[in-house]
Amino acid sequence: MFTAATYLSGGSELLLEILGPGIIGGLFLPVLGALPDAMLILVSGLSGSKETAQSQVSVGMGLLAGSTVMLLTVIWGTCVVVGKCDIHDSIARDGQNTKGFSLTGTGVSTDVWTCYAAMIMAISVIPFIVVQLPQVLHSTSGRHLAVLIGLIISLSMLISYCLYQVFQPWIQRRRLAYAKHKHVISGLLKHFHALEKLMTDDGEPDIEVIKKLFLAIDANNDEQVSAAELKALIIGIRFEEIDFDKDDAVAKVMEDFDTSRNSEIDMEEFVRGITKWLNEAKRASASSAGPGSHLKFIDDFHLQTKREHTLLGPGDQSDEVVEGVENSRWISFKAVLMLLLGTVIAAAFADPLVDAVDNFSDATSIPTFFISFIALPLATNSSEAVSAIIFASRKKLRTASLTFSEVYGAVTMNNILCLAVFLAIVYVRGLTWDFSSEVLVILIVCIVMGALGSFRTTFPLWTCFVAYLLYPFSLALVYVLDYCLGWS
């Protein structure tokens, strides 16, 4: 199974290198990543009689819970440790690692898309909650119906998630273009404010100063600012922090100011446009409510837009990778071959592995859940884990973002695709859903780590201990609930 997972992971990476995100990256590869787990779950519930399936299905549930917990605890925490950089201004700086093992001074930063991946992962536990409701309400009659509803929700969420992944690159490019435009606005305001104070002492836009700026920009004194004059201004400011298309920036600024649509900006339009920008900056600035804030909110707005642009990440990186690939036909053939080989191996060895776990459990009197919870994820997720850790060790915001997104994505596919397979078996074969402690563990780990990933983009080193401690806590919780309190 480890070999199967390695082939599937290697083939997926090769395919993504050639085709970039979209249908392949968003739809095909997440499904392939979850294939070994899904195959084991399928086999554990289909083999033998109904009684055999009921006893073996705990192998599938152990694998499902174990994969989720291992990815979000051991792998997540290790990625923070190997990827840590020095933290300055709440962002980990690429490649800088001079503070040693400072719990608050070092860590990793991810982009905002990784936050969305964490939110989606946290939401993906909804089917577990639905299936668990009859047990919570102590109802036996509604269990079969709850399994069916949970299955329908899982499949709906799987389709929605795949669609989101397909359209995400387009959404990302749109967001990045908007962030660049905001950065141009903040840069122009900062430049103007450095020349003349744009605000009066009572915090209102200074109209006379804005008019003077208009006259300074109007190089040919025709009382109109043209696109060429605007471009000269933007080039003259030298925006060193970000790279953007100057003509596109000019077009967007003209669109903001030129309300008459005559491709020229008159003084009235200029005053109105700058006033509108100042009000937007004031609203966006975190310090706008403080005393004397009108003197520093422009600087705050500039820093805020800079940080926002950084956290969005490079929107066109994937296209560069795709264009630079040589021998794409051979790589495509090799990728498909690896994917087919991985699928065949996973299909061939899933049934013997489930039998081996069952027999080992009988021989040692260790419950099948604990064997599958600890041992099987090492086989089915090890290639993902190794590639995630190697990626994190490159110590860059972009690679950290891809690493954590991969981890959250793998857990999301466990929660919707693998669970859908599991629920389909339980419903079709009329098995009993009796996994309250396992579901509770999945819910706790997904919600804690999902909340941590959803509400922050920088993870100091101390956060790895939160992740690490959740692993032994999960094992202990299942043991206490099942074998001390008799939940199952």
TrEMBL record:
Cellular location(s) = Cell membrane
Q: Does the keyword Membrane apply?
A: yes
Q: Which SUPFAM superfamilies match?
A: EF-hand
Q: Which residues form the EF-hand domain?
A: 205-240, 245-280
Give TM regions. Answer: 18-43, 63-83, 113-133, 145-167, 331-350, 370-392, 404-427, 433-452, 459-481
Instruction: Give the membrane topology, semicolon-separated if more than one.
Output: Multi-pass membrane protein
Pfam families attached here?
EF-hand_7, Na_Ca_ex
GO MF annotation: an example: calcium ion binding
Cellular-component GO terms for this entry: plasma membrane; vacuolar membrane
The main place the protein resides is membrane
SMART domains found in the cross-reference section: EFh (SM00054)
Asked if the Swiss-Prot or TrEMBL record annotates the protein with the keyword Calcium, the reply is yes
The UniProt keyword set, sorted, is: Antiport, Calcium, Calcium transport, Cell membrane, Ion transport, Membrane, Metal-binding, Repeat, Sodium, Sodium transport, Stress response, Transmembrane, Transmembrane helix, Transport
Q: Which GO terms describe its biological process?
A: intracellular calcium ion homeostasis; sodium ion transport
PANTHER family reported for this sequence: SODIUM_CALCIUM EXCHANGER MEMBRANE REGION DOMAIN-CONTAINING PROTEIN, VACUOLAR CALCIUM ION TRANSPORTER
Q: Which family does it belong to?
A: Belongs to the Ca(2+):cation antiporter (CaCA) (TC 2.A.19) family.
- The entry's protein name is EF-hand domain-containing protein
Q: Which organism is it from?
A: Tripterygium wilfordii
Tell me the lineage of the source organism: Eukaryota, Viridiplantae, Streptophyta, Embryophyta, Tracheophyta
